[in-house]
Amino acid sequence: xxxxxxxxxxxxxxxxLQVMEQLPPESIxxxxxxxxxxxxxxxxxxxPNLTRVDGVSDAWDQFKGFAEYDAFTAAWLTACRRVLKxxxxxxxxxxxxxxxxxxxxxxxxxxxxxxxxxxxxxxxxPNFRGVRFTNAHESLIWAQKERGQRYTFNHRAxxxxxxxxxxxxxxxxxxxxxxxxxxxxGVKVHSTQKPLALLYRILLASSNPGDVVLDPFFxxxxxxxxxxxxxxxxxxxxxxxxxxxxxxxxxxxADAPPPAEVLQIHNPRREPRLPFGVLLESGLLKPGQELYxxxxxxxxxxxLADGQLEYDQQRGSxxxxxRLIQPGPCNGWTLWYYHxxxxxxxxxxxxxxxxxxxxxxxxxxxxx
Length: 368
Prior knowledge:
Elements: E1 10-13, H1 16-21, E2 28-33, H2 66-83, E3 84-94, H3 99-108, E4 112-121, E5 137-144, H4 155-161, E6 170-173, E7 183-184, E8 187-188, H5 196-206, E9 212-215, H6 222-229, E10 233-238, H7 241-253, H8 260-263, H9 277-281, E11 290-293, E12 300-303, E13 309-311, E14 314-316, H10 318-325, H11 332-335, E15 336-340, E16 345-348, H12 349-361
Parallel strand pairs: 1-10, 2-3, 2-9, 4-6, 9-10
Antiparallel strand pairs: 3-5, 4-5, 7-8, 11-12, 11-15, 12-13, 13-14, 15-16
Helix pairs in contact: 2-3, 5-6
């Protein structure tokens, strides 16, 4: 699908069901949805100092009952399914009021759930009446359109964002507050504005630069601002004209995306694969040379002319022999070391692979 046929980087006014009907099928890479939660509030909430809590009392969160809410949910999830690419994924956020119903309907519509992420609020609003636990989290369902299809997950970016540790499904992030919270004359513009950090993480994890991100409940445009910062295209749908205008102003005032090279995520899995034997063919290693199982280890193996290693009278690939020495999943490229005569030290054979990749896949200089 040619994305130039889409209304990219725009807020589209209107009901999301009607607007999505106008979008081409299978044209969207990622959807983030923050639908009405159907909170079913029946009375005002008051703080101990007798000030009223500014909760969610908006008309867009009012439904006659579960049947009406379920029909609404099924309709917009069906519309999302039509516009998602086969490789596309969908995020939905909610609370205990609605997320279980949303998940049930998602599965009935043949979405495949990938993760349930818990956003743990580091600064939650207290339960002022003291009759329940403080609601300190919201849930996000991440689902793909077609089970088994390839989808985007930038695992290494998430790991880097988390100081080198694998990102877990419990995300500790603060509520949208302070300067980030949009206000007009001191009054909050939107009762459920999401923090930019949350959308930044979602888009970085599950989309790539240039992808098209759709938000069918755009509100004040947090998804659009996060997309702009990360070099993604976005489409927002919003039925409230006041929200739409404020979202346009907000995104227009946001910083322009950085250069493309800053946005690219390094993923070794996307690099061209080279067999170990190519190191022999190129002369970077030689038959009969010793490789060492670690920088300081006395354990070694001999490189054979066909690219296999010989260790303890057994032959196999760099990965197979590594598993003989260290049972379990092994990456021989990082475990085997060679003696580098220039530095006088052992280096991982992966250094040689990277050298060769740069040589083989760098653009040729034009001959003079």
